[in-house]
Sequence to fold (484 residues):
Amino acid sequence: MSAAWRIGVDSRRCIGTSICAGTAPEYFHLVGGLSAPLADVVAPAEVVLDAADSCPVEAITVHDTTDDRLIAPQE
Amino acid sequence: MTESAQTTESRSVPPARPYPFSVPDRLVVDPTYGELRENEPMTRVKLPYGEEAWLATRYEDVRTVLGDVRFGRAPAVQRDEPRLTPRQQYSGMLTLDPPDHTRLRRLVAKAFTARRVEALRPRTQEIADALVDNLVRLGPPADLVEHVATPLPIQVICELLGVPYADRDRFHIWSEAIVSTTSLPMETIQEYLNNLWGYIGDLVAERRREPGIDDLLGALVRARDENQDRLSETELVELAGGLLAAGHETTVTQIPNFVYVLLYNPDQLAQLRADPSLVPAAVEELLRYVPLGVGSSFARYAKEDVEVGGVLVRAGEPVLGSLSSANRDGTVFADPDRLDLTREQNPHLGFGHGVHHCVGAQLARMELQVAVATLVTRLPGLRLAVPEAELEWKRGMLVRGLLGMPVAW
Fold:
């Protein structure tokens, strides 16, 4: 497993359901009604993938910082 | 005097009002909500069953109650939770908080993303067109509920889940148990739920005999069989049955509600007909405007003391959030009681908020867009075929809607 993940939230896609902030409050919060990561680069944690995979509009992406591989959302 | 005693003293707890405030009248939002948003945004209420609760009526407060992780649903199963139904729910996604909730939600969320749902749009349009063809063949007056609003979402959820549409007459009856408050006797509700779980259980067994079937039920069965800790057999059956039933009672109800509202706003309906590109915005506005729920349900329990709307909610106290009231909050929606299909900023709470935000929201949006667009463009003369006073509304259910809607065109 890689050493770090980069979290992205596409604010054009985000509809502000707050599912991510409820699922992984250590990683996401709502700013002006839309989701934002608390930190862009984080140590790998399953709950981040939970949040990305639970987003109804797939606004959250998680990439491996070393090779830029997309880790979530999964197909 | 201790600090907590001071806080208790400074906290005035008004006597509880009976709730819902009135018997539901068509799709009218009780004016009490507006008064409360203005004067008493956190009020005490007593529902027909269960303990007293706080009721939040302002948009921001409702969002806090539904979205803030200091509130949860899990404590409800140990309490006599405030509810409209004699029966209390002790299982299912709405009785769980993260991380337990996440484990189940993640399994189904993928099937309902905007992208997955978009792929179902052509098929949904095909179904809608066939239903309207049939309606036209039957000729006016014809019941929009029976011939369009009911079969459309049911056929879509059946195909998505992998439930035979041919069995619809059976599970349609059982599905009412999910949204019934007093329309069915308690024993009947339990009997219908048992029938529904039994029926899904048979389909699960079928998927195990024929693994490889590419539908949501097949995917859930595989998820269960690959990792027994991820999903129990009961969870699997209740999850699939819950999705089937929810697919019945929500969009089915909203299609006629939307048409009803549009017919009573003829200028807006004409605008929509002239410019169908307004349909997505119109659907969002209708989701905001139509009070689908009869009252508020599924109270969130404070896990610690939380200040909401100027009131200190004590740890362990239940708080209900009124979606219908939040959606009419004038500090968020300009001219909130006016239907405006061109409204641009529309962060309504029609699908709720937080981790329990409707899992089928994107599917419902797409179905409603297809239904509204198809009806307004293909039936330009759409109108009620009976006087409004003759319309029959649901009673004893969690949702408001028409039992039948005779239309002409």
